[in-house]
Amino acid sequence: MAKANPSDHHVEATTSLVDRTLRTLKHGDLFAVFAKDGDCRGGDDGPDGLFYKDTRFLSGLELRLGGSTPLLLSSVLLDDNAALIVDQTNPDLEEEGEPWLAGDRLFIGRMKFLRNSTAYERIVVRRFEIVDRSIPLEIRFAADFADLFEVRGDVRPRRGTSSAERLDERSVRISYLGLDEVRRNTTLYFDPAPAALSADSARWDLDLSDVERCTILVKVQCSIGEALSPEPPHLVSAYRLLRKGMEDRLDRVSSSNERFDVVLGRSASDIGMLLTETESGLYPYAGVPWYSTVFGRDGIITAMMLLWIAPEIARGVLRTLASSQATAIDPSADAEPGKILHEMRGGEMALLGEVPFHRYYGTIDATPLFIMLAGMYLKRTGDLETVRGIWPSIAAALAWIDSKTRLHPDGFLAYSRMAESGLANQGWKDSFDAIFHADGRLAEGAIALCEVQAYVFAARNGAAEVADALGRSAQAEQLRHQAETLRGRFEEQFWDEELGSYVLALDGEGEPCRVLASNAGHALFAGIAGTERAERVSKLLTSRRFYSGWGIRTIASGEARYNPMSYHNGSIWPHDNALIALGFSRYGHKAAAVKIFEGLVGAAFYDELYRLPELFCGFSRRPKRGPTSYPVACSPQAWAAAAPYALIAAATGLDIDHARDGVECSTPVLPPLLNVLHLQGVELNGSTFDLRFTKHGKEDAAHVSKVRTG
C-alpha cells in the first residue's frame, strides 16, 4: 500500500480514537476531549485536552483521592451535550500497606462543561459512613500548548518557551510564548483555596467527620495576548447562561421508533454544539477533535442537508464564506480571486506558515457548492436581501469558475495545487491516493472530478435563479445555456458504458480514471445525470460491490486501491451516503434511498451515543454485530450529524419552494423501521406546517396536520 504523502497533512493513525472511550464538549472556539472518567491525559497518550483556537491549553488533568485513582461508576454526556457527568467511588485506600478506608465508602460526582473560553468543573465528594481522618484530594494539571497539528502527528524542530507561576492562594497561570510572538495563557482557579498549591498540582485535605459532603470548584480559563483576562463568572452563573443560550433548532422531528428518535436527538445536540457564532452568523464547525473550525465544503454541505428544517444555518454559512472569499493570488494558500475558503486555522503553526491553513483555499468544490447553496437558500426562503448582499461574492465565484473552465480543453473545472505544501487532491476525497486509475496508478496533472462537474452544473442553474430574482435575466439565460452545454460534455466524456457508471475523474491528459466510485452518486444529487443513466447508477451503488449493509462504500470492492479500512478508498461516509440518497430520491428511486436510510440508522444504533461518526470502515455487515470503527474518525462531525435530516428529506421527497408557496412530498416512502414520522414546525412564508407521514400497507401517505400563520 502506498505511504501517505507528508505534504498532505493527514491525521496520523499512530493512536486510535477508539482505543479508549472519549467524551467531547464544545462551546464557541473552545473544545475539550476527556477520557471517560473526566480526566485528560494528553501528550503521547492521545488527543485528550482542552483546546482553544487550534492550541491545546490543557494537556493533563488528573484527579486523585487518597493517593489513588477513583473507580469509574458511570460517565454520560447530557442528551443536549451541555455537560459531562462522571460518577466515581474510592478504591480500597491504604497507607504503608495498611488499609484505612474500604472501597465504595465515598461517592465522587463530577460535572464538567464549557462556556466561552473557560472549562468548568464541580467535584462533590460525599461519604456514606463516618470517616475519622482527613482525606487528601489532589488535582494534577499540565499545559503543553501543542499546536493541533502537533497533536495530529506533525513534529516541530523548534517550539516556544513555557513558564508557570502561582498567582495567589487559589490560582495558577501557565504561559507559553510561541515562535509567532503570541502569548497563550492557561489560568486555573480553585474554590475553596487548596491546602497546597504549586505550578502543577492542587491538594485539599477533606474533613468529612462532621459534614456529609465537600464541594470543589475548578475553572480553567484560556486566553491569548499579554493582557490578563478578568476571572470568569462563578460556575452556577456560567451554567445558567450556557443553558439559556442553547436553542433547539432541530428538535422538531419524532417518529414511532424510539431508537430513531434518540439518533435524531443526538444529531440535533451535536449540530447545536458544533454551531458557532461568527461575525457573519452561525457556522457549523466541521468536527471534534481535528476539524473544530470553519471548513468551506463541510459547512456548505451541512447547511444543504439541514436547509429544510433550519435555513438560518445556510444564511450564516453563506455570509461567513462570502466574507472570507479570496481576493488575490497566493500560491502558498492556493488562493485566487473568487475562490471559496477550504479551511481556516488560528494556531501557531498556521500563523508561522509551518502548515498552509491559516486561510487555505485548496479546494475545487467549495466554490461551486457555495453558489449551489445560494440558489437552494433563495428557493427555500425567498430571502432576497441576503442573496443580494452576497451577490458580488456569487459573481466573483462564477468568474473564477469561468476562468478555470476556459483553460480546460473540454470546459471542465479541474484542480492542481499551486505549491507543494498544499493538498495534492482537492475534492472531498482529498487523501493523496484517493484519485487513481483502474490499474492503481495515481492520477496526475489537472484533475477534473466527476462530482465537481455536477456541482458546476447545479451552481450555474442556481445562479440563474438568483440572477432572475435580481432582474438579471440576460445573465440568467447565459448561465442556463452554460449549464446545458456542460451537461452534454459531461455525459459524453464521463459516462463509461462498460463500467455502467460515470468515471471517477479525468486526469491531466484527459485519460478517464475508470474506477467505480461513490462520486457518481453526486451526479444524481446535483441533477446532471440523464434519467436512464441515473437508474443504472442507482442499481450499481446499491449492489453488493458498493453497499455493505451499513452504507455505500467510497470505492467498490475489487477496485485497485480498495481497502475497507482506508480513509477514502473503501470506507463509508454518512454525508456521502446522505447526498447520494437525496440523488436517488430526486430521480424517483425511493427504494434505493430507503436502503441507505436503513443502513446508516442501523449503524447509529450500535454507537454508544447513537451517533454517526465522520466515517467507519467498509466491511460487509455481519449478523449480531455493528460496523467497524475507523481509528481517527471525528465524532461528532457536522455533516455526519446532519445526515439523518437529509435521509428524512430523501425518504419523504420533501421539497419546500418559497416562490410557489408550497410544500411538496413526492411519493413518500418510510423505511421499515418507521410506521409514523412527524415533522413539526416546518416554516414557509411566515406560516408553519406540521407534516405527518404514516405507513399504510404497501403505501405511505403524507398529511398536513396543522398550519399556523403569523
UniProtKB/TrEMBL annotation:
Protein name, as recorded: Glycogen debranching N-terminal domain-containing protein
Annotated source species: Novosphingobium kalidii
Putative glycogen debranching enzyme N-terminal domain boundaries: 25-216
Domain Mannosylglycerate hydrolase MGH1-like glycoside hydrolase as annotated: residue spans: 302-600
Residues that span the membrane, as ranges: none
